[in-house]
Design goal:
This protein has ten helices and 20 strands. Helix 2 packs across helix 6, helix 4 packs parallel to helix 8 and helix 5 packs parallel to helix 6. With 511 residues, the protein is of the alpha/beta class. The protein folds into two domains: 358 residues, Alkaline Phosphatase, subunit A; 81 residues, Arylsulfatase, C-terminal domain (2-Layer Sandwich). The structure holds 2-acetamido-2-deoxy-6-O-sulfo-beta-D-galactopyranose (NG6) and calcium ion. Calcium ion binds next to loops.
Length: 511
Amino acid sequence: MKIIPLFLSVVFAVAALHADEPRKPNVIVIMADDMGYGDLSCYGADDFETPYIDQLAAEGIRFTSGYCSASTCTPTRYSFLTGTYAFRKPGTGIAPPSSPSIIPAGTPTIASMLRGVGYKTAVIGKWHLGLGGEKGPDWNGDLKPGPLEFGFDTCFLLPTTNDRVPQVYVKDHRVLNLDPKDPLWVGKKKPSEDHPTGITHRDTLKMDWTHGHNSTIHNGISRIGFYTGGHAARFRDEDLADKWVEKSVEYIAENKDQPFFLFFASHDLHVPRMPHERFQGATRLGYRADSIVQLDWCVGELMKAVDQHGLAENTLFVFCSDNGPVMDDGYADEALEKLGDHRAGGPFTGGKYSVYEGGTRTPFITRWKGTIEPGVSDEVVCTIDLYGSLAALTGGEIPDEAALDSFDVSGALLGDSDAEGRDELVQQDNGSKGNFGFRSGNWKLQRHDSGKARNVVVEKLLENTDVPKFQLFDLSKDPEEKNNVIEDHPEKAEELKARLAAIIEAGRTRE
Ligand code: NG6
Ligand code: CA
């Protein structure tokens, strides 16, 4: 009898020692764009298959309460990189084509933290956080500040989002393949009377627009904003995914001998949905789901590259999304018409632009072969916590004035059975109208200062819905947020209202 406790205490001592030791796996964060909770077969989609992402989930942890912090792209990405809620910083809403860098040079980020503990760091894919100083991007010169000024060693970017101009890659500080004899001009105003646009040349488009997106035409698709020049630098929408996989596979090979952090920021399934020809028609649901299948292929290629170099047991994959689903986001790509029974938000109400659960509760998967015990977790984790969690895991440092809302949920991310995720989380929309979701345990408070909620019903054209300024839901009984119980629980509602206001007021939640 005496031997057993002694033996156990040795085991625990070793385990404790192990837990405190920094671990430095390679980290690959794959962020999908506009992917809803129900958009993968491992999350219940049954109209098409996503075998690679399903494999990632089967070999790792599939979270049922995994979140991004906002229901649009720019604020989620801002919070993921900086660890601070985007609503704290005005100007973090959806970035226009010529936005200056929203993140100032020298800002501590998840990338600078990892670099500080010896990681090589890269971002490959969609950026959409602005580039350049106050005057905006100098497209023909150095695009500074950008990711290289706050923690990334290298980047290979689509500068904005692909429904915005320009369609060029940015490699480190420069537009790639730019011919100085054909300078790139990007602006808000039509550059000349005869400049073809989605309005004047609508009949030539290969995919029509439905709202906005009717300015400069490139590759048969009209966009938000105008540009001229830079022809040698322009890419085809159909080739984006392949190019980013190619660059990522190269990056993994080049950095296989030391820890690396790769932020793979996919553009799938954002509009314009224009997957490579080999994926067009891959599903019966049109280009929206075809883009999901394309992303699944990308994930498979990254997994294969990691396997090829024998890195699977030394690589933490995180799969997540930047916001929930939307159908018609500006182009006539038949997302709605071909939707059938597919529920992009899974069981949840609302999608992109919304603080209903569907706006931010999205697929979230972690895999680290040999370390993570495969399973399903109901713990609350959020993209904003990757900064704090990876710092805890790797021994990285967070300056006191940085990552103001990022928590260490590394135990939950790695599936430790006694580890807990967050007990509360603020969800925001694009940040402009005072719309918040506040999850506290299984309670969910919604606050809509304007009395309007956007994209509540995903399976329809985008619209605003009148809602009470405050609503309270019990997610344990009502994950769909259909039954507002604020009248039955006035004290709980007051408590959560006050707590949300205090979080906003305090300027930080990390102690
Ligand atoms: C909206 C665009 C939408 C999309 C979104 C940003 C219009 C009418 N709508 O303003 O198409 O670009 O911004 O999406 O222009 S996000 O996922 O990058 O946040
Ligand atoms: Ca998005």
